[in-house]
Amino acid sequence: MKPVETIVHKGKSIVIVDISGCNPDEVAQTVHEASKKISGLPPKSGLILTDVTSTVYNQATSNIIKDFSSKNTPYVKASAVVGADGLREVLLKTVAMVTKREIKPFSTRAEAMDWLATK
């Protein structure tokens, strides 16, 4: 699977941003690619699934994710996150607060995609 790709699930296009297991440099590279794809979507239309499972969490990662989420908010209809545990869960709550949008956590990609397909 590519780090950033669009799939169709139950008739809905979902942008998957896979930063699972990434270090801060890899996170930066992947979210840069994802931002280009997401910013090309019509306003408030994007369905985004981000996988943060085992992503290295530190201040750099936190800043990258907050910036990425804030810049993409105008294009996002719904966001789901997989793998937000421990400190990654704290970051998820912070990003949701900063962007003033719901970012729903899920245990599996399948659950996240099913939820996004209802949006």
CATH H-tier superfamily: STAS domain
The top level CATH class name = Alpha Beta
Give the class from helix and strand content and strand pairing: alpha/beta
Largest sheet: 5 strands, mixed
CATH topology: Transcription Regulator spoIIAA
SSE blueprint:
Layout: E1 4-9, E2 12-18, H1 24-38, E3 46-51, H2 59-72, E4 76-82, H3 87-99, E5 103-106, H4 109-116
Parallel strand pairs: 2-3, 3-4, 4-5
Antiparallel strand pairs: 1-2
Plain-language structure description:
The chain has helices spanning 24-38, 59-72, 87-99, 109-116, and strands at 4-9, 12-18, 46-51, 76-82, 103-106. The protein is α/β, with parallel strands linked by helices. The chain has a single domain (4-116), classed as Transcription Regulator spoIIAA (2-Layer Sandwich), CATH 3.30.750. α2 (59-72) links the parallel β3 (46-51) and β4. α1 runs parallel beside α2 and α2 (59-72) runs parallel beside α3 (87-99). The two termini are 24 Å apart. 35% of the residues are buried.
Quick overview of this protein structure:
With 119 residues, the protein is an alpha/beta fold. The protein has helices at residues 24-38, 59-72, 87-99, 109-116; strands at residues 4-9, 12-18, 46-51, 76-82, 103-106.
Give keywords:
119 residues; alpha/beta; Transcription Regulator spoIIAA; 4 helices; 25% strand; globular
